[in-house]
Amino acid sequence: MLQDKNQKIATLLAFSLIPLSGFATDIYIPSLPSMGLSMHAGSLQVQMTLTFFLISYGISQLFIGSILDSFGRYRFSLVALLVFAAASFVIALTHNIYVVYLMRVIHGITVALIVVSKRAFFVDVYKDKQLKHYLSLFTIIWSAGPIVAPFLGGYLESALGWEYNFYFLGGLALVIAVLEFIFSGETLKKPAEFHLQKITAVYGTMVRSTDFTLGLLMLCFAYSMVMVYNMTGPYIIEHQLHLTPVIAGYCSLILGLAWMVGGFIGKATIERPFFKKMATNITLQLLLVSIMIISLKFVNGLYAMVAFAFLIHVCAGYTYNNYFTYSMSRFPKNAGIAGGLTGGGVYVLLSFLTYGIVYFIPAHDERNLSYSYMILIVLSAIGMYFIHRLNKKQEAKVSLLAAAA
């Protein structure tokens, strides 16, 4: 069990692992074109390394939560760190795209174990306002991955080669595993019974909660904006604009900052009326992407693309921060399942959604990127419309019950 004297250090270690999923995807974003050349693979084949990770990461989270709620968090997380490190080293040593696909599936499963267990850590250890405070920090802490990883990856790729992105991931996982072994421990005090029928009933209750399900869709649309850029941005920068992987890394760093800014704004406005602030946010995104599309007739290039993407990603980070805080605190008695369903559902949906968008709207230029943003923002607006209708119905029910009383 986690010792009280190590709680602060264990909390810091838990926060350090929250961005791992972002690191696992973003550190080699500037290296996608180089990996394709090295493995004699096309752009779509290399982009599939992201898709395989997202699918395995998402599907794993759907089931891992119930296991962690029944058998504990700590040991699973520790073993997963070691397996993740081993898979990273294999990717660095191989130049076979199909071996990379398999290792990326293993990456997805192990990162799911790590991240879901650390989300549940906070629900186990902290309560009420303190828990809400920490959950609202998740999006901000997570954004450290998209900020630091591509910036670091661009330099590693330019100086040493794309393989060293994965050597770094493996080394980082080993260091944290040692620290976890020394300072962390089990936080689950009352394990839930691993009863398949009961677990299925809990999943059914969550999925049937319309507000929870709509929240998952809004999270999916928000993060898909980031993933669409990750899958297309490096090709636009390095192939169309003929710039270096370091420049691609700097651009990803800037957009990671945008996500963090959105998280900070979300935390600062956490007490504001929910629907009003989210409707304002969606309206702003629609305005920005419309201006982006129109402006391409007069101005284009790196600075214009990054400027518009930055503002759109700020709004996406704001959306994600608000809905993630709500979804994670919606079912506190089943924190592992709620965390797994939240993360897993989002990643499964966005893996297919982003691959479909990239397939039908290839990474040719800024115009295609703007169209991808427009599709996702319109879907978000539709989601907000249904959320508004749901809120109205709930308000009407409350009014009727109050009148009857």
UniProtKB/TrEMBL annotation:
Keywords: Membrane, Transmembrane, Transmembrane helix, Transport. Gene3D superfamilies: Multidrug resistance protein D. The chain crosses the membrane at residues 48-68, 75-95, 101-122, 134-152, 164-183, 216-237, 243-266, 278-296, 302-323, 335-358, 370-387. It is a multi-pass membrane protein. It comes from Mucilaginibacter celer. The lineage of its organism: Bacteria, Pseudomonadati, Bacteroidota, Sphingobacteriia, Sphingobacteriales. SUPFAM superfamilies: MFS general substrate transporter (SSF103473). One of its GO terms (molecular function) is sodium:proton antiporter activity. This is MFS transporter.
